[in-house]
Amino acid sequence: MKKTVLPLLLLSLIFSLPFTSCVSKKKFSASEAKVNKLQGDSLKTHNLLNECNLQVKELKNEKASLQVDKASLENENAMGQDNLKMLADKSKLTIEDQAMRLKKLENIIQSQRDLMNNLKNSISEALVNYESDELSIYQKDGNIYVSLQEKLLFKSGSDVVDPKGKEALKTLAQVLNTTKDINVVIEGHTDNVPIKTNLFKDNWDLSTARATTIVRILTVDNGFDETRITASGRGQFHPVQTNETEAGRAGNRRTEVILSPKLEELYKLLNQ
């Protein structure tokens, strides 16, 4: 019986060996395939991780760049706000300066207007005893005109002032000497009747000589400031009446004392 069992066990063992080897090989192949798959999955995961890390790095760089841009914009905005404030303050200051300048300008103009009105009244009162055909006083373009007719001052064709004319000029000088803020121009005028003498070549020459004579009377004889007076001869070229009649020609034979306010302060303010 024992002899029979032993051979059977040997036979069983012999037949089982190929089957065991076959099963192990299948498991190995399956394990190897699983390992390969895991390695492939691991590689994909690693690549994906690298991509994610790269994206994170790019996002960090973009964030840093955006932060720099934000800081730059904030600085620009702050500078812009400061500039706007400065411009607003400057504009406000400019408006205030302009208002003050305008006020000063108005004050100067009003002061000059008052000065000229008072001066005209003073001259009119001082020369009230003279007739209208001897002299006239009026204002034009901000100036005062004292128009002295030839009959008050000169004989025909002469530049020598008559005594009555000298008295009128003395009275006028007394008023002018009380006013420091004016300039004076003396203009000589004639009619259009030609003149030619040993002293004067023409009406222009005569009108200039008459203006110069009156300047000397006002300054040398009556003390008016020489730096504020000018002589000008205008001949027959600026008539105020027609030269077709004797009365008109008589009206054109005149000497005008033109009083103007000093404008230095006004020009200085305008040029600031």
- SS element count, helices: 6
Q: Tell me the helix content.
A: 55-70%
Q: At CATH's second level, what is the architecture of the largest domain?
A: 2-Layer Sandwich
Query: What is the assigned CATH homologous superfamily of the largest domain?
Result: OmpA-like domain
Total E-strand runs: 5
- Major sheet summary line: 5 strands, mixed
Rg (CA only): 58 Å
- Beta-strand content bin: 5-15%
Q: Report how far the terminal alpha carbons are from each other.
A: 144 Å
Look at the structure and give the mean pLDDT: 84
- How many discrete domains? 2
* Assigned CATH class of the largest domain: Alpha Beta
Which structural category fits the helices and strands? alpha+beta
Low-confidence stretches: none
Order of helices and strands: HEEHHEHEHEH
Return the CATH topology of the largest domain: 60s Ribosomal Protein L30, Chain: A
Spatially, the strands of the biggest sheet line up as 1-2-5-3-4
Structure explained in plain terms:
The chain is of the alpha+beta class. The protein folds into two domains: 113 residues; 144 residues, 60s Ribosomal Protein L30, Chain: A. 65% of the residues lie in helices and 12% in strands. It contains six helices and five strands; from the N terminus they run H-E-E-H-H-E-H-E-H-E-H. The longest helix has 125 residues. The relative contact order is 0.09. The model has no long low-confidence stretch (mean pLDDT 84).
